[in-house]
Amino acid sequence: MAYFRRFVWFIARKLVLISVLLSMLVCGFFMAMNIANIYVVLDDGLEKRVDVILTRQQAEELNKYFHADFLMADAALSGALDGSSAYTDYNITGFDYSLTIEKLWAWPWDSYANCTVVERVPSITGKVISSRRGEIADRVPSWQGGRYDITLVKVNGQWKIIGMQQKTILVEAAADTGEQLESEILLP
How many structural domains does the chain have? Predict the structure, then answer.
């Protein structure tokens, strides 16, 4: 009887250990899947946001990456689409985009995720539109990048950016100076 009891406890311990290991693997898999999906949404979505602000084209594609509440409240997008942006008087032909994800965490069972990113646009190429030549500077204004705290929400199985709060302003130097970064300003 003692051998049988030890055998049952041996099997029970092994089953518990295997169950714990399998649950950790499943949890790790879903966590990695969420983080990979969020990374793609952040990288592609924020680059598309910059593209729409600079060129005012294909704004409907932002719905793939951003929640409707965010799109309605984003001042930079509103300025670009209503013509009050600093880039409205320029025909932008290209730009370099850089996104660094500093912190990203998403539990597999949560429908919200938070992250910290640094967004920069080191160079923008373009020309003044013909109707404004001579009235404004020929050089395209520098992009005001920054460090952002971003909140994402899972809607119908897809991650979307719902909040974006700027913590630091990064002002790019003029393209002709060759400097990477002019200044960093902390926001309250």
Answer: 1
Q: What is the pTM of this model?
A: 0.82
What pairing do the DSSP bridges indicate for beta strands 144-155 and 90-105?
unpaired
Q: How do the pLDDT tens digits run along the chain, 188 residues long?
A: 888 899 999 999 999 999 999 999 999 999 999 999 999 999 999 999 999 999 988 899 999 999 999 999 999 999 998 988 889 889 999 999 999 999 998 888 899 999 999 999 999 999 998 887 888 888 888 888 899 999 999 999 999 999 999 999 987 765 444 444 445 666 66
| Residues spanned by the domain of 181 | 2-186
User: C-alpha distances in angstroms, 26 versus 40, 126, 139, 175, 177?
Assistant: 21, 49, 53, 48, 51
Residue 73: both structure tokens together? 């409240």
Angle formed at CA 155 by CA 79 and CA 58, multiple of 5 degrees? 35
The CA distance from 87 to 102, in Å, is: 28
Q: What is the CATH number of the domain that holds 31?
A: 3.10.450
CA torsion 53-58-64-70 (nearest 10°) is: 40
